């Protein structure tokens, strides 16, 4: 069975409560349960969230040589982190960058991603559905 990790970065533990007009009113755990059920026969899905850059990097290293892919929403670290970009470049598993909101419709500092050039692809602005589409793509 294939293995895919969904990895969420800072402040995404507050999904459902945080700026619901931008990020929606569903918490991620609840969404993840429905995703896991939908894909249960095709892939072993796991989920990890951290607010810390180093912990996100550790997780990328941990799964990046054995998993079939990582769906990564690095939150604001997307726009700042050379270290996460280097971690993505260092591993073998493909990574898809996901953003719930359309970052290109928002402040200009959100238009720059340090990660995208090392990712298989980028999905932005499609809400939580972006995670499902990324998983589908990684399954090939
Ligand atoms: C986000 C967009 C980022 O700019 C922001 O810092 C986030 C969430 C998104 O999913 O739309 O924390 O990655």
UniProtKB/TrEMBL annotation:
- What do we know about how this protein assembles, alone or with others? Homododecamer.
Annotated function: Catalyzes a trans-dehydration via an enolate intermediate.
- Biological process GO terms, please? amino acid biosynthetic process; aromatic amino acid family biosynthetic process; chorismate biosynthetic process; quinate catabolic process
Higher taxonomy: Bacteria, Pseudomonadati, Bacteroidota, Sphingobacteriia, Sphingobacteriales
Q: Which domain of life is it from?
A: Bacteria
Family matches, as NCBIfam families: aroQ, PRK05395.1-2, PRK05395.1-3, PRK05395.1-4
Segments traversing the membrane:
none
**Could you say which protein family the record assigns here?**
Belongs to the type-II 3-dehydroquinase family.
The organism is Candidatus Sphingobacterium stercoripullorum
* SUPFAM superfamilies named among the record's database cross-references: Type II 3-dehydroquinate dehydratase
Q: Where is this site: Transition state stabilizer?
A: 18
Asked if the keyword Amino-acid biosynthesis belongs to this entry, the reply reads yes
Top-level enzyme category:
lyase
Q: Which GO terms describe its molecular function?
A: 3-dehydroquinate dehydratase activity
Its recorded reaction(s) are: 3-dehydroquinate = 3-dehydroshikimate + H2O
Q: Which residues participate in substrate binding?
A: 73, 79, 86, 100-101, 110
Q: Does the keyword Amino-acid biosynthesis apply?
A: yes
- Which EC number(s) does UniProt give? 4.2.1.10
UniProt keywords, alphabetically: Amino-acid biosynthesis, Aromatic amino acid biosynthesis, Lyase
The protein's name in its UniProt record:
3-dehydroquinate dehydratase
Instruction: Provide an example Pfam family for this protein.
Output: DHquinase_II
